[in-house]
Amino acid sequence: MENLFQDQDIVDVKIEDSVKASYLDYSMSVIIGRALPDAKDGLKPVHRRILYAMHDLNLSSKASYKKSARIVGDVIGKYHPHGDSSVYDALVRMAQDFSMRAPLVDGQGNFGSVDGDNAAAMRYTEARMAKIAEDILKDIDKDTVNFVPNYDDTVKEPAVLPTRVPTLLLNGSEGIAVGMATKIPPHNLGELLDAILHTIDNPEVTADELMEFVQGPDFPTGGTIFGRRGIIDAYNTGRGRVKIRAKHHIETKGKKEIIVLDELPYQVNKARLIEQIATLAKEKQIEGISEVRDESDRDGIRVVIELKKDAMGEIVLNNLYKSTPLETTFGIILLAVHNKEPKVFNLPELLNIFLSHRKTVIIRRTIFDLEKAKARAHILEGLKIAVDNIDEVVKIIRASANDSEAREKLRERFELSEIQSQAILDMRLGRLTGLQIEKLEAEYAELMALIAELEAILKSEERLNEIIREELVEVKEKYATDRLTEIEDSYDEIDIEDLIPNEPMVVTITHNGYVKRVPIKSYEKQRRGGKGKVAVTTHDDDFIERFFVTNTHDTLMFVTNMGQLYWLKVYRIPEGSRTAKGKAVVNLINLRPDEKIMEIIPTTDFDESKSLAFFTRNGVVKRTSLSEFSNIRSNGVRAIVLDDADEIVTAKITNPESQYLMIFTSLGQCIRFDIEKTREQGRSTRGVRGIKFKHDSDFVVDANVVDNIEQELLTVSEKGIGKRTTVEEYRETNRAGSGVISMKLSNKTGNVVGAVLVDETQDLMALTSIGKMIRVDMNTIRKAGRNTSGVIIVNVDAKDKVVSIAKCPKEDDDELDIESADTMDGIDLNEFNLDLTNTDEKGNEE
């Protein structure tokens, strides 16, 4: 063995160095030779080789179709030493009008569909170049680009194509290399060419200036882009994210709404989308959908989503956007190869690279044409000499023994080049007629003019730019189309809020978690002691727990017994009839198992001067700045840390004018203490003790934020007994004390269910456990001392009881008094404008 190596040099190489070098070579091969497009012509090697192979086969847009298998065979046999399936897949994609903004291949046969159907086998399909591909290959035979050896060094292939079309941005590109990836969206050709024409005169143009021409991506499947921030980022930095939504319109069928999808986001599989929507509807993950069907045809996409009678189209759509690819995010990465180096470019850089490539192509084409013209002129000059001396030329030729001797004698006699003398020997006698001689002289004159023009182009930058401009305008006139993808200025501004009137609503929620909103005009006012109307139809094991009044445009904060806080706009709650059961709240917000909503607080802002006060069943109180809840995730945030066996009872908004916090218990105790006795704390804290119970069985049932002691409190018990008492009568004590008596209780009254601040510009609404709701003018309720029971407000049956009370806007004969708005525990009643009908105790209109 030693003898085998004694005459050879042995080099020690570390294995990690060898692996590193080998992997680097492999990486560069993938980056340059497979996965990434060139910034000049916008094509990956496989696409470039397919087009060049079709050019070799003379498969122009006017030629007869050839089998795809023939094209693929030429590509892998001459240029692309990889699998035939990868080449055919690339060919198929170049023919799909739903994949490319401007298809480069004209396919005949089954080339797949937007439903994800595969193309037919390559032996069944045929193809030829699309017309626009001819402009990508135009002038390739005029030495406009470099040619390099193919993989086995038997033929040459172009390193890049001399495209007149900005293919990189027109059709986009996607690819994953080693350690990097590109994702370039398609664009509108007309917009790109306008931007390039502007760049010719303004080489230092900025991305923001170019956005006056290029609005943003233009996907072949249309759709709507929400927001320009991602586009601005991508065009300035090369990276950005845009949201794309399906285009739709709403139709009506009787009393039901029908959502019709007209366009889908880019690269969304229609069949898979429909299947996903149907599955979500079947599993009740999205409520309100009765049927999904595909009515698409050759004229376009039409996916029909039929809704149930009481479903809101916009609510269903929002759930679909959240749970399905009806809304997708396209992450833009403008990465391409330039001079064999991968780099992330911004928009001006890509357009300038394209322009620079066009200049190089035109210069090389001009040089090619110039050399060809000079060569022809040189021959014509020799022919002219021959014609002028035809007798002597004929004599020399006849006296020569062979062509070589004749050629040499002609060169010596007339001082011709070898090419000229050979051209004279090849000249036919027919060229000696008078007409042919005139044509010869005319051709020579034209050539001299052409040579002068070509030389002028090479000497003038201005003339060069003029040619580029003329060619780009020609391309625009031939291929530019209208924009397909709409762009909305701001994603946040796109809201169905603009389409929904701002109206007061009664929102109810049942013990089992069904929520609905009903216009407040559905509840007519009754006299004190009235029986009320059915507010909701409930099951035997369900009952209404709470309700409140707010506007459709307000934001709702859902506070749960577990101390979590969620967000929801009022208009996203489905509107129902007065007796409708409503929708399960779990379909609107992401509640956890066994989590129960305890308070729903409407607000119009998240001013940091306000705070949110939380009150627990065991008497704990805590205040947190409202601004800390201005950005809520879909799964909510932790609002308070609770002790074991404790839960939230209610929560209230406080403002700078608030002076006192008041806590009411089931057994008739109440405490009033200064709000400053509870400092603001962060979200993930426990809070402090607010009240100490006299009895172990007692617990907190309600709480209020008080601005001054002249305000009155209306306390209501389970049997419908209530009274008005001034805050001043509830003696101020220190926090964590037992407080004072809030109501004199007995079997006739039952325990306390709640207490609200009196506002004579508002009415009281009381809710019972079997679903009755009554509206009472607060002016009809008698004032009484703190240690009294009060008067009957609601007549309840023996098996019924009051479970909740709230305030609502006061009715007048014409409209609500909007001068005294902003009185409902943080509810803004401004701009209420209602036409409500008053009734007497028997329900007759007054």
Which CATH class of the largest domain is shown?
Mainly Beta
Roughly what fraction of the amino acids lie in strands?
A: 15-25%
Cα gyration radius (Å): 41 Å
Q: Level of helix content?
A: 25-40%
- First CA to last CA: what distance? 119 Å
Q: What is the total number of structural domains? A: 4
Give the count of helical stretches: 18
Quickly list its features.
disordered C terminus, 4 domains, alpha+beta, 846 residues, 18 helices, Topoisomerase II, domain 5, Gyrase A, domain 2, 24% strand
Report on the architecture of this protein.
With about 850 residues, the chain is of the alpha+beta class. The chain folds into four domains: about 45-160, Alpha-Beta Complex (Topoisomerase II, domain 5), CATH 3.90.199; about 245-325, Gyrase A, domain 2 (2-Layer Sandwich); about 360-480, Topoisomerase, domain 3, CATH 1.10.268; about 495-820, 6 Propeller (Neuraminidase), CATH 2.120.10. The protein has 18 helices and 41 strands. Strands 14-9-8-17 form a four-stranded mixed beta sheet. β15 (about 335-340) and β16 (about 340-345) form a beta hairpin. It is elongated. It starts with a helix and ends in a 37-residue tail after the last strand. Mean pLDDT is about 85; it is low at about 810-845.
